[in-house]
Design goal:
Helix content is 58%, strand content 4%. The chain is mainly alpha-helical. The two termini are 36 Å apart. The C terminus is likely disordered.
């Protein structure tokens, strides 16, 4: 769908802000996405951007509706994994599992299929099926020594599932493999390894010690006292609608499941997402 030049420019500016702020300030990105929606709700790219902004702020019901709208407009299956993860966020892992078995998955590219595998494993964990989650992640992509953009997250998800199953030695090995592949710091694999080793690095001086050190910052022989890092026992790790209604969508949304309209935002599981498996 084409837009008048001035309107198209306004929409484009808002979409640029959504993309720029999505990671650092998702709520602000969401606000810009709502403006873009008011301006051009029949543009698929706008619906997709609005979906990701809603997803990033854990508005899963709204995100799912936007992703469905974008898919209807384009016919693309690209958003299938994130749509399934929205079902997880809404507390419906069984629906995510059902989507993992649909023909759309076979139409995804390799990255999309890996993402779907991560979502499916997360859904298994949501349902307390940890062993099944581990099996779900076992694949040729996991076994490969080749490194792709999704490799760190896949290895990390596998390590995390192993750890939940009590297989600590194997978990340590796979956190290490995730770290080796994670050149961009997409995961906290290094921190997880430190926790498994029972150590963390902290400043050796507490507030009280720092005050004392300020009063006697030079030793009797004139040298500054040593200040370093010490290893301590690791602390427990914490596991990690809107009033706008688009008239253009009322006919499309009327045939969606009633429970989608009544769903409330749930807590999102792990996807390393996405998909954060």
């Amino acid at each position: 769908m084409s837009l008048p030049k001035t309107l198209a420019e306004d929409v484009a500016r808002n979409l640029v802000m959504v993309a720029r702020l999505l990671d650092e300030d998702p709520e602000q990105a969401y606000a810009y996405s709502r403006i873009a929606l008011r301006l051009a709700s029949r543009v698929a790219a706008v619906r997709e951007a609005a979906g990701f902004a809603a997803y990033a702020t854990q508005r899963y019901s709204e995100a799912l509706a936007e992703f469905r709208a974008s898919r209807r407009m384009t016919g693309s299956v690209e958003l299938w994994p994130v749509m399934a993860d929205c079902e997880r966020g809404l507390g419906r892992p069984e629906r995510a599992m059902a989507m993992a078995g649909e023909p759309e998955v076979q139409k995804l590219d390799k990255a999309g299929q890996v993402e779907m595998r991560l979502v499916a494993a997360g859904a298994r964990r949501d349902m307390g099926q940890i062993d099944a989650a581990i099996v779900t992640l076992q694949s040729s992509e996991l076994a490969s020594n080749a490194v792709h953009p999704w490799t760190p997250r896949l290895r990390y998800a596998y390590a995390d599932a192993l750890l939940e199953a009590g297989r600590e030695d194997e978990a340590r090995e796979w956190f290490g493999k995730a770290l080796e592949a994670d050149k961009d710091g997409a995961t906290d694999a290094s921190d997880r390894l430190a926790e498994l080793d029972g150590v963390e690095f902290v400043d050796a001086l507490g507030d009280d010690e720092h005050t004392e050190a300020s009063d006697a910052s030079v030793t009797s022989d004139g040298d500054a006292p040593d200040v370093g890092l010490r290893a301590t026992d690791a602390r427990d790790r914490d596991d990690i609608g809107n009033d706008d209604v688009h008239e253009a969508d009322e006919a499309d949304e009327a045939d969606e499941d009633d429970d989608d309209e009544e769903a409330v935002d749930g807590e999102h599981g792990d996807l390393n997402g996405s998909a954060k498996a």
